[in-house]
User: Fold these one by one.
Assistant:
Number 1:
Amino acid sequence: MGTIGAGRLTLEAVAEKAGLSKGGLLYNFPTKDALLQGMIQRMIDQVSSEKEALRAKAPPGPNLEARVVTKTLLNICCGGKMQDMATGMLAATAENPRLLDPVRQVIAATLEKLKANSDDLDAALLAWLATEGLSNLEMHGLSPFSEEDRDRIVKAIERLVTKGIAG
């Protein structure tokens, strides 16, 4: 998706990039909306899998949900997966904003989990918001931060979810 570009996303271009015939692609994704829905669901599933893998390895302690959510987003951010996600979400938004409803549901569910499972809700919400902000800047190629700045921000987020807000 990232190499095709949101504006030029066609079933033909995707089939060619994937090394499939258009008929083979149409068998699984009969419309462009179906293709975009599939891409969005794949993104949601990847994030969910990464989150569950991190949860299984996370040490016990305060703000477990916030630690898992922020670490997942930061891992995806660092792993270079964000550009493809941004392109897919941009394409979906341009085509049909309702295609992002599953993403909206995941975001709402994340908020509810943080509210229900945080020892320090203010710290959890601020860390999540900071992580989403950093991720979005990086996802769209807009981050002004040097690697040193970014590392400092990530460490501050980690401190926030483990130690909370002082005072």
Number 2:
Amino acid sequence: MDGTLHDFKLGIKKTVQARVIEQGFQDQMWRSSDFFVTTNIDHGVSLFTVFSSVNKLYLAILRKGDVNLSKCDMENTLDKNYFSSVLLYLERQGVTCGDAVAPTRGAEFEQVNRVGLAEYEQVLQFGAQQTCDPLFGFHLGQQIQSADYGVLGYLVENCENLNQALMALLRYDQLVASIGQAKFQYQGDWAVLDWLPNLQTTRHVILRNMTGWIAMVRALLTQPVAPEHVSLTCSLNANEASQLAHWFGCPVVGSQPHNQIKFPRAYLSLPFRRANSAMHEALQRLSDKALVQLQQHHTLATQIRIMLAASADLGQCQLDAVAGVLNKSVRQVQRQLKQCHTSYSQLLTEERMRRAENLLGTLPLAELARELGFNEQAAFNKAFKRWFGVSPGKYHKRS
């Protein structure tokens, strides 16, 4: 028998058994015969069947005949698993699922595999109100499990170390939630992870996202760790900042221009307790396939919005450059955007407006103008007044 296949099957068995013990048979997922079947894989089973079993085991979003992504654009949506974990948390707090999904289109929820950002925000806000918890997103993030991230969660779980896990996050984050862009960079001896939402969003979305990353990493590492500093774009009062700092193990500051986690670069080589190279390779293939299918159902306008949101310098985002990245001619891009009832100029303006509103007051106006791609501050001031009806200074005072 091929050694790689044997290791792969063994990895399935060990992972299932470990997860069953962890869950204490509380989760119906682990009582299902579909999942336990993988613990009895015979040596003669084909590699295709093994991959199919893993696909089921890890809640991959590509079950045959079970997914139809063509009905809607995937921008600003979340995977159903990530959304469902909010409902499970609320049930543990005494709030029934029916009550939780009432503010959303509950009737449609069972029919789709992605949930819109607006619906997600409504459920988080509903949960915060029902539990009287101003840090609902933070407490929700503390309870994150690998399964909540779907196939990406299990891919990360089987990574060798934190560096490999971060690379998986940067590449496949859209599978979990296409509501923002994660960026990673080095600053000397420090590593910095930023998260920039596509749209202005609520504090609970931000708190859950940033807290969940740390909670999951801590669960997978073989030793306790704490960041050096955490910045959040949402506001925090002194008591809230103190609670977050106690759990994160470092200063946490709100009302910042970026959602950012800063930690020692040396952490990147720390090993994960469940590292499994064969399982990681298989899950990476599944993730690649899932990502391709997800991206195929982005409209061209959405693809460009994502590219613009991920760009550090909008001044470099000329139409011809963007068309080149998309392997299209400028005319093709213009024609297809017209079919989407928009234009490249409009998409660029939308991104500039979003950044201007989010960053106003956090940067000098001249620096903000450059980041938005304006050669002169005067041109930025004129554009800002056209967008919002007042000058940047008056807008900042008013807000």
Number 3:
Amino acid sequence: MKKLMVIMALCMMMVGCNSDDHEMVCTYKKDKDKGTITVRYSGDKIKQLQFDATQYIDSDLLDEVGEKDFEAYWRKNVEAYNKEGVSVDSAYDKETRMASMQIDVSLDQLKDRNYSDFYLNDNLSLKSFKKRVEDQLNYTCK
């Protein structure tokens, strides 16, 4: 029984026990901003996305939201995701004006949400996702 539990735990830590599951990593870096998107997929169908981004919050956004209110604004975004069952962690450093966010979402969690919020279209194709993040966000995917 103990061995079975160890095997199950190992399978859960890996991309999956299914050998058809693969991973693509997309990265971005410009000035102080950087991001990573890890895509888990099988065939050409996306199964899970992990976003990890850090960005400098420019004056335009602070002016729009209000510098004093930005931290609360950032927290509200995180709470909205969490209410939907999407795992999100974030931080905002007022001194450096750097904000970070980590999102882990499975496609089951996106059923009632607009896929384009996550640079996906309805067919959840890996190829179309890759093209969108490379063209629209200047990420490099491997």
Number 4:
Amino acid sequence: MAVQSLYRKWRSQTFDALVGQAHIVRTLRNAITEDRIAHAYLFTGPRGVGKTSMARLLAKAANCEAAPSDRPCGRCVQCTAIAEGRAVDVIEMDAASHTSVDDARDIIERVQFRPSSGRYKVYIIDETHMLSTAAFNALLKTLEEPPDHAIFILATTEVHKVPATIMSRCQRFTFTRHTIADIAHHLERIATEEGMQLAPGVAEAIARSATGSMRDALGILEQLDSFTNGQVALEHVHSLLGMTTAAEVDALIEALLTHDLGRALKVVNSVADQGADIRQFARDLTERLRMLLLCVAATDDALLDIGADDRALLHGWAAQVQAADLVHWIKLISGLDYQLRTTPYGHLPLELAIVEALVAPPAPASVPAAARSAT
């Protein structure tokens, strides 16, 4: 029998259990409490940030047998069925595989029938942007004047592909990426519940690799559980994900700051000799340089999603570098992903970028025409 994945097992079943998205939770809870549930919602944001979980919670809150409540009981027939994914009145559709106008027309026909057992018939349409133009057009009238018993929840990672006519008929909520701290804290709690032991730094390393996606983070944690039998060290994370250590990234940055080309190239070759993923190393380096740029340019630390020790290190580096140099380095290294993926010469593109970063100065800012004429 297949084992339930961690992200499904630990899907939030109450609004209180949701990680992040506090602004959306508060708005929806108020709407439920005041009996002002809208007929159509549009949830937008990156993958793995809680759009589908929020949609299911809204469906549960609207259909709880006790009463529409921002704290659904979780025990009644409706709450249990929705949590287990078998509620007949909560229809989930993946628009990526149901893109045609016929699929939209099927929804339009079925939505006219009243719910079988719940208070509302809820349609959750994931990856909405994948619907065809004809399918969007077919849904327009229904979204504008739906039956009183229907709620539509559209979820998408690419809102720019959703027609403005659809967006104007929905209440839009924008989901943001989870912070590293939120993901790490959630992973540590789940690991404890699952009987796993995470070494210091493991949860944060996973969180950084997940780039704001809780689902991706839980997927990595599950892989590590199988890989290590529950005893997870930082080396296991680096090995599984092809990551390099923070020490190697920091060593390269220190070489850049001191303009030590020999040391910088030695770090790059050492990373390559270890068999690490050079593309991932370049991404890690770019992100670290980005954090340093924010430290140099920002007036406060609000943008720095890092711990106190890292914060102190970055502030020390910030005193040694100009923002223009950092911009130059970031432009050089952030554009390497495609080259590193396609080149037959291994890590040569990164070596060339490092040499250019230290040998060729950043291009001077162009002078506006008005300023030139004034001189």
